[in-house]
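Preliminary data (for renewal application), histidyl-adenosine monophosphate complex.
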Amino acid sequence: MAGGFSAYPGTRDFFPEEMRVRQWMFDCQQSVCESYGYEPYGAPILELMDLYRQKSSEEIVNEQLYSFIDRGEREVAIRPEMTPTVARMVVARSARLQRPVRWYSIANFMRYERPGRGRLREFYQLNVDLLGASGMLADAEVLCLAVALMQSYGARRDQFVIRINHRSLYDTFFADLSVDLKLLGRLLDKREKLTAENFARELKELGLDDREEARVKEYLDLDREKLKSLDSPAARELSILLDYLGDTDAAESVVFDPGIMRGFDYYTGLIFEVNDCHPENKRALFGGGRYDALLKQMGGPDWPAVGFGMGDVTLENFLRSHDLLPAAGNRSGFFFASLEAELDLENQRLADKLRPAVPVEFYLGGRSKFGKQLELAEKKGYRYVLLRGSTEKAEGNVALKDLTTGKQESLPLEGLAAALKARC
Ligand code: HAM
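Predicted structure:
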């Protein structure tokens, strides 16, 4: 490491080239959310600790929260997720909000986790939430939006899968079990990370007898057909949703998986997780579900809600592994090179005239050779370079070089801004 300090473990600095990738990922999210009529919102990074007690997951509250006592003796926490915050905000304004509320945000969060592939201590999350609408249409909208997001990155159907389940399916299926259902749920949640032997051992440790173990197996063997024969409202809801999705774009991406648990206590209905099919990326790409009781529990109206959180770390891993990140050279705008020192002042003025229409970076690096300037423009991610020497000046033109094709063309000064804008 050059210099004495490094970033706090599990966090990232975003240098401009990383920032470009991040911004591109966020731009796709923004445009898909807005195409579904979702509006952006924002919130503070600090919340009163009480917001998370009983309203988030036990694991997050007990092991992952960054919390401290502020100078006014208040117990505060850095937000580990957005759902309690969005619920708090909607409760505060519910009398004035038009239902259903369709909101999205892209924000940073902190959880004290062991950093590793797909897991950091600071990460960004797109949160998409639909509040005040119940039923299959709302669930289907959120799932279709999730698929549209993946498609906006160019993801193919065989590269990701959305696995859905219903919180009550699990609760009713195991209603007569003597063991702690929360502990069993946690074990089912992590079973894909365990070997078959370790999973069986941990089941035994929970105290399940043979009949109960067989029941767990029966549960994990449930599929769409068996779901139809179950006498439970949750099974019926899921079957109807899956049949309905069968007629949409999402059909091939959504499958039923009884093993999906989700760690948050606030989920009440549909729960889902999106997985990357690339073998290197074992962590869920994103996840969410229906949380119909949370707003009421927080003293608000009895509004149902459904949504999901998509993390930037897992998303970037997905995009890299499947070669879906845009190639370098994705920087919009123009690099204005310097051919002759005598023309720098004039050219700088020309750059100023172009700027209301297009971004222009003017070369100020001294008298480097032209080839070096082109290298610099390429490293900075530009595709186009502008050139104006005495020949171009005499002809009333500016030359435009395309670094991806190597081709150069002459553009007249007249109408130059519009011609460049068309290439952005
Ligand atoms: P979550 O499953 O905890 O759900 O997080 C959703 C996504 O955020 C994960 O799938 C992952 O992409 C990303 N994520 C979470 N923790 C980390 C981490 N330590 N490092 C990197 N990425 C991470 C929730 O947060 C729910 N509040 C989502 C939700 C919104 N449910 C309804 N609305």
